[in-house]
Automatic annotation (TrEMBL):
CC per GO annotation: Holliday junction resolvase complex; nucleus
Protein name as it appears in the record: Crossover junction endonuclease EME2
Biased composition (Basic and acidic residues): 1-21
InterPro entries, alphabetized: EME1/EME2_C, ERCC4_domain, Mms4/EME1/EME2, XPF_nuclease_EME2
Region (Disordered): 1-28
Family, similarity comment: Belongs to the EME1/MMS4 family.
Pfam families (UniProt xref): EME1-MUS81_C
Segments crossing the lipid bilayer: none
Keywords: DNA damage, DNA recombination, DNA repair, Endonuclease, Hydrolase, Nuclease, Nucleus
PANTHER family in alphabetical order: CROSSOVER JUNCTION ENDONUCLEASE EME2-RELATED (PTHR21077:SF6), EME1 PROTEIN (PTHR21077)
The species this protein was found in: Crotalus adamanteus
Amino acid sequence: MAQIKTEEKQKSLHKKEEKMRIKQQIAAEKQRQKEAASALKFLRPDQCMKQMIVCVDSGLLEHLGSDILLQVLDSLDCKYYIESQRIPHSITWKRKIFSRTPNSDGCQEETAVEKEVLLVMQPSYFLRRLSSLVQNANPDSQQSAPDLTHLCPFHNLEDPSIVSYSVVVIGLDTYQWYNQNRQLPQELITGLENATLQLGPEQSMTRHQIEEALVVLQLRGNIHVLFQETWQELAQHVSAVTRAVAQRPYKKHQEKQLFSFCAKGKWASGVHISKGGKGLQETWLKQIQQFNRVSPAMAAAIAQAFPSPSLLLQAYQECNTDADRQLLLSNLQIRTEDSKTERRIGPDLSRRVYLFMVSTNPELVLDLSC
């Protein structure tokens, strides 16, 4: 008897320990969900811009028009700092991240560097570097094409597959037009339409050579080059990139969510189904209304005749031929308060519902009128 009592005490102790362990796991899971919800709050579209920091290289302030960029940054909901960057004349982004440590009750603020770099390049430097690389290419080497990735100071930095590098060249067309037209007097330029002007090596770069360089930079270096004429366009581009970078984590989070289109709440046209099955009838109604050209009255007629999908499938099994199955719902009466004439479901919707319920082909087109 003593041994039995001892075993019962041990079993009771084990049950208490198991209950305590499960209780701790539930509490830890609730805390984790609470922290995840708190972190997600700062990533929402209405809050994400407040967590962004735009870092502008101090060298950009030397150019005329940089005040336009600062004015646009002032109008945004984010902060911006003027500080020296690893890449001169570049713009980078940082994000404030709030994390909770195990030994503290509050959230700690940290700063994470975004994998996004934007280099602002003047047309004179861009053409001079491009011309130098093209002229210094060794024709006897196995690789006849020059390594144009050295056009931008990104080749010795982080992997372009991890960091997104982009270049903005401001005023290239205006620069080329000005340098070509100032070489000769105006009266001589008008008469030399087919003549070749004596230009410098960087000024003689053709549009075809520039486009070839863009292709090489895009394919080999994963570097995107954008040509803009004014600082106002650059400021608008920086604003758009800032918003895109700010909303990126939230969009990635939304993509990972399973069946985000079946959210709860009336605002999302969803139906909450209780454990007792309340809400299944309304869900069946909404599923029928997802077909094209189906009104609530038509869906109600089908749901009233067959209150659940299983009953409709059972009715299909009782039919003798496939034609009878396709026309099973065609004679159902549609009842509306305002309609004085008799209406029926019709063969078209009856056929579409039947194919939807029994077909195993995911590429099948139900609506032939689309």
